[in-house]
Amino acid sequence: MLTDPALSLPLLFFVGIAAGFVDAIAGGGGLLSVPALMWTGMTPIQALATNKLQATFGTFTATTNYIRNGIVPLKELRLAVILTFIGSAAGAIMIQQLPNQLLEDFIPFLLICFALYFLFAHKVGEQDRHKRITPAVFGLLFGTSLGFYDGFFGPGTGSFFMFAFVSLLGYSLQKAVGGTKLLNFTSNFAALLVFLFSGQILWLIGFVMGAGQVIGGYLGSHVTLRHGSQIIRPLLVIVSVSMALKLLLG
């Protein structure tokens, strides 16, 4: 652990690239970026706040590319965007009321749970399927709740959104990635606005990792558009297993 986060800038830049790449394809980039930020010696609140800054760059880059290629159903997800924004802002406000020690004990437990979930989650289809709920209900249930979670903690939000898009709205994996990045960007941006007033963001670290996120988000979104589910499923498993081993052994 480093006492001065600025000493690890080169490494954090490359973590930003990796996190942006992973997040653009399968979600879960926070599983890389949050532990890396905490490794530098930041408090949990500083890590979460700075993570929102750097992640906003990657999700914006990937979302823009997906919109340009027509796999983001913007009209269908308008309500979900609004509710995700509200939920995320509420989560970011609440997380600042909790003591650091509680977060330090809670974060590794959550990361292990997410890794296990990603590993054992059911496989999803490659084509659009029948919708089980309407986009409005989806926005109310998942935009609000997952937005709140993303503002409160964050890692794994993208994968939860993807699973919900596929299993409940019947989206193909590629379309689900597009919708997920739109809502992920929304929640990141909403939480970032809240954290702007907290004084907890380490700006230099955030901008350095953000530069890496732009590169990773751009590359990851292009890989998704080209290879679709062939890369999404394997990457989910690899990220999950790697993080679980790191936490259990380290």
Automatic annotation (TrEMBL):
Cell location: Cell membrane
Membrane topology: Multi-pass membrane protein
Major subcellular site: membrane
Keywords from the UniProt entry: Cell membrane, Membrane, Transmembrane, Transmembrane helix, Transport
Cross-referenced Pfam families: TauE
GO cellular component: plasma membrane
UniProt superkingdom: Bacteria
Record InterPro entries: TM_pro_TauE-like, TSUP
Membrane-crossing segments per the record: 12-34, 77-96, 102-121, 133-152, 158-177, 189-211, 231-249
Entry-linked PANTHER family: MEMBRANE TRANSPORTER PROTEIN YFCA-RELATED (PTHR30269:SF0), TRANSMEMBRANE PROTEIN YFCA (PTHR30269)
Family in the record: Belongs to the 4-toluene sulfonate uptake permease (TSUP) (TC 2.A.102) family.
Protein name: Probable membrane transporter protein
Organism expressing this protein natively: Solemya velum gill symbiont
